[in-house]
Every structure is written in C-alpha cells, then in structure tokens.
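Why do we care about 3D structure at all? Because function follows from shape, and shape follows, mostly, from sequence. That is the central idea of this module. The next example makes it concrete: a single protein chain, its amino acid sequence, and then its structure expressed as tokens.
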Amino acid sequence: MLTCPLCASGQTVIYHRDARREYHQCRCCELVFVPPGQRLSPEEERAVYDQHENSPDDPGYRRFLGRLFEPLRERLAPGSRGLDFGAGPGPTMSVMFEEAGHPMAIYDPFYAPHPEVLSCRYDFITATEVVEHLFEPGQELRRLASMLHPGGWLGLMTKRVQGREAFAHWHYILDPTHVAFFSETTFHQVARELGMLVEFPAADVVLMQRRGR
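And the structure:
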C-alpha cells in the first residue's frame, strides 16, 4: 500500500482507475491521490501551465477568483499583509488584494521562485487552484500554516470530492497536473492537525484560521 501524502498513513486503498492512471484514497483523512510513479515530470507540468492564459485584465477570471477574494477580504483588518502561493504565470489574486489595500508577496515554483518570501510571516495566505497540484500536500500545508501570524487566514480554492460515483465522471481528474483531491472531511482533518478553524464559504472555497491573536 502507498503512504498518504497528506497525513502519512499507510492505510490506503484503490479508489478509482481510468485509462490514464490510478487514484488511491487514504482511509484516515480521505484524501484521494495519484501514485508518485504516475505524476508528470516538472518539465511536463510546466508545459501544461504555460498554456494558461489567466490575467488580471480578464473580468471573468476576476469573477472566478472573487469566490475566495470576497469572503476572505471581509475577514481581514485594514492593511493586512498577504502571500499568494502558487501565483501562476498571470498573478491576479495579488493584484486584487493590493487594489483593496493589502500588500502582497507572490511565490510560484515555476514563475516566481523567490524562496525568501517563504521565510516571512503573513496575516493571510491564498492558494487558488493549487493544492490539487501538490505532490506533498501535508508538508506544504503545514509550512503555510506556520507562516501565518496567530489569527491569520489560509484561503484555498479547489474543487472537492463528492463521492466515488461522481469522481469517476469528474472533469477535474482529467487535468494531468491534478494529483491530490480533497473532500470536506479531508479539510476538517487538516484543520484539526494544524490547530485551525475551518469554514466553507463556497463549494470550492475553504478558509482556515490559525487560532490565537
């Protein structure tokens, strides 16, 4: 059996197979994940991301990001400082928050590889359509949580697993760069491990707050 890349449990089972790859599920945290041997290489990943045409000049993309931007902005104090983690080739979430008066740093392993920003602390961190790409989501989410000030917010956008039958026909698994799939139960497990509160403002939005002030 494979080890879960989120909680490190060895209790994993086959969840689904298709013509391209397998999907395993952890019995402890319920993460569904693609085995390491069936992931893309960094070069193959980059080739997919280079095809993205997201831009802050695209009103439709801004509306899409608004599903996370609006509920998170409502919870922030004026001037709160943030990080957009996994900003991609056309950073837009950072632009939206800066327009709202929140200074932002950006990080992306391919397009903004600035490791120095990962040694700072923030009032909030966003990761939009990112966690489904992570090979080691447990390690990355622990790191992001540790970068938050007490009371800080981690805002995520990712579509959630709704059951085995729906998964088999889900467009989300057709993207070869998507390798980790979370359910609401999975996020509750993550929040417990990290000592965070969790909310679900929309079907593909998760807000987690670090305890303390």
